[in-house]
Amino acid sequence: MMGDLATECVGSMLGLAAEISNTSEIVIITVSNFSPFDRARNFLIENAINHGARYGCFVDADMVTPQNGFLELVKELLRMNATIVSGHYYRRGFPFTSHWSVTLGNGAKYVDYPKDSGSYEINCCGLGFCVIDLDFVKERLTKPYFKMEYGESEIVTWEDGWFCEKIKKAGGRILGHSGVRCEHLYSREKIGDDSALRLRIAEMPKFNQSEKEI
Fold first, then answer.
1. Residue 97 phi/psi, 5° resolution?
2. Distance CA 110, CA 21 (A)
3. Which pLDDT does position 214 carry in this prediction?
């Protein structure tokens, strides 16, 4: 969490905590205003492992998660013997694509799948709402688990991409669960199935103009 927790997200956060506590012992580790992001995520996952947690659940403060989303992610992780299972959510900005990607040739391509069509193997995902097998992390990965790499003027590798690459190299599986649909808060607007197309259409002229200026 950076800054304040938006009111739009409070209800689902409370529901998520209740959902987890109904099925298992819950440890809530909150990171507020830690930067950069790799420092925050390393703090979270290392504390979870030190507490003896079997599974880790990342949820960003700008994410509205669906009812029973956590249980669906855990069930899929167990069923498919996966290391990470990510819920579906859109990126905050044009062209509002999914956070899931697969590797094609020398590059990555963002992919999307029909709602409620099951889970799909992917190469990388954002960590806004996901469940992680912490035994795999503890036994198969080395520290740092997350790292951001910098070029001369920009970030060239984000912490989620670094983590996913380590998982894949260690033989782990990463899945995107198309049935767990989250909403990503964007300028106090939630990006979901009903709003993503409308936002793309609304921002297309602005995007095309910026391309011409470049």
1. -85, 170
2. 34
3. 42
Distance (Å, whole) CA 91 – CA 24: 31
**Residues 95, 101: Cα–Cα separation, whole Å:** 14
Least confident of 48-57, 99-108, 202-211: 202-211
What ranges do the domains of the chain cover? 7-213
Q: Tell me if 175 sits within 8 A of 121, measured CB to CB.
A: yes
- Which H/E stretch holds residue 9? helix 7-21
How much is the average pLDDT of 118-141?
Answer: 96
160's CB contacts (< 8 A; 6+ apart) are 124, 125, 126, 127, 146
Contact, 44 vs 145, CB < 8 A? no
Q: For 11-39, what is each residue's pLDDT tens digit?
A: 999 999 999 999 889 999 989 888 899 99
Nearest to 47 by CA among 61, 30, 63: 30
- Looking at the domain that runs over 7-213, which CATH code has it been given? 3.90.550.40
pLDDT at 75 (0 to 100): 96
At residue 208, the pLDDT reads 67
- Closest of 83, 88, 113, 85 to residue 99, by C-alpha: 88
50: which 2 tokens? 């030190």
List all residues 6 or more positions away from 30 whose beta carbon is below 8 Å from its beta carbon.
1
For residue 100, give the 3-state DSSP assignment. Answer: coil
Please check whether residue 16 is in contact with residue 61, taking contact to mean a CB–CB distance below 8 angstroms: no
Q: What is the mean pLDDT of residues 76-83?
A: 97
Tokens of 176: 């995107």
Q: How far apart are CA 164 and CA 9, in angstroms?
A: 26
